[in-house]
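Lay summary. Proteins are chains of building blocks that fold into shapes, and those shapes determine what they do. In this project we predict the shape from the chain. Here is one chain we studied, written as its sequence of building blocks.
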Amino acid sequence: MRFIVYIFIIFAFVNYAYAAIQPNAAVQKISLAVDHAPPYSQINQNGEVSGAIVDIFQEMKKQLPFKLELVGCPFSRCVRMLEQGEVNAMGGLILTAKRQQRMQFVTPPYMVLRSSFVFYARQDSQLQIKNYDDLYGKKIAVMRGAAHFKRFDDDKKLIKVPVLAESTAIELLLKDRADLVIAVEDTADHAMSVLNQPANKLLKMQYRFNDTIYGYLALSKQFSTTLLAQQIEVLMKTMATNGQLNQIIAPYKLPPLNEQALRF
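And here is the predicted shape, written in a compact code that computers can read:
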């Protein structure tokens, strides 16, 4: 009888020690923040959330045991919730040094856009933006918390009008409360066609900043230390190298990951 008691104590101690060195091993739910940025992520009128990053996690669920909680939110709120650990993950984020301090980026990226940051004005505005310096003195609608290109993001002399969504930025433009809207050309053109927004009332400016834009999955700092998060990171790399990730993003007209992206 005493031997059985000893065995039970040893078994309990081993389980306690395992839990102590892996305190988050029991985490079996991932909360994923998704903003409305069609066609790559969407929130419909009923609050239903969908998009490329959702499809990626639905596929991961087939290989890892976790429940997925989808949290629809405006972009800036999604980012803030991720930084504060109120949600576990968010997709479609551009990597910046500032963000790296506040969240954990998962490599490789799942979105690669060979596109440009462009500026839209109203068709009747008579504005001409031919170079960067022409931006000064103009009211530019930007999504709160978004990252663009370094010179633009760091420039304190520009007049930036923060908004919660790209659709709101276009509304401000059409109501003459902003002079310009900055956007990624490929995603903006696609989104306006999906949402039937009045692209015919907008004029794309001549100046643009050409770039290869990478969109990443990011995890909250708190969640990134868990066993489940580490499994997610390994699985993301596996899905990228075996081509599974490209199959998932293909319906969203996203280009396949190139060799450079896979080296991240």
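What the prediction tells us: The radius of gyration is 22 Å.
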